[in-house]
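Limitations

Structures in this collection are predictions, not experimental determinations, and the ligand pose is part of the prediction. Treat each record accordingly. The example that follows, with guanosine-5'-diphosphate as the small molecule, is included so readers can see exactly what is and is not provided: the inputs are given verbatim, and the output is the predicted complex.
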Amino acid sequence: MNTLSIAMNHNESLQFHGSSELREESQTTESHEVAIAVMGVTGVGKSYFIREVSGLDVTTSGGLESCTSVVQEYRFPFEFANINTTVTLVDTPGFNDTFRSDADILKEIAQWMASTYRSKISNEELP
Ligand SMILES: Nc1nc2c(ncn2[C@@H]2O[C@H](COP(=O)(O)OP(=O)(O)O)[C@@H](O)[C@H]2O)c(=O)[nH]1
Ligand SMILES: [Mg+2]
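Predicted complex:
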């Protein structure tokens, strides 16, 4: 699975982070799974963005109090350049959270990445 992250901020700009490996792999292999972590401070519009892009039922907050308290995956089919892909947008607890520290949130995101990577390895080892 390819991984990418999107960092959102209140200036309505999106920063995309991905390795060159991602770009090369996308062009040369049959890898049709992409996971994108969406990160940013609480209230910036992460859940709203995921709902608009995926068309899935994603709960957004009414204000600055956060409502995404754990990492959540939203998986949907997406056609890109005539290739059918499956995209997983990962809604992450916002930094500057009402109830949790940034370090705690970063730890949870890292744990999600590690477990996803481990499950990818074990899937590939299956016959
Ligand atoms: N009109 C409009 N409202 C937005 C947009 N992005 C976020 N919002 C609103 O801003 C509030 C916070 O958004 P949310 O996605 O819950 O923020 P999150 O904490 O980053 O997940 C919600 O009430 C959203 O409806 C946008 O692009 N347009
Ligand atoms: Mg949210």
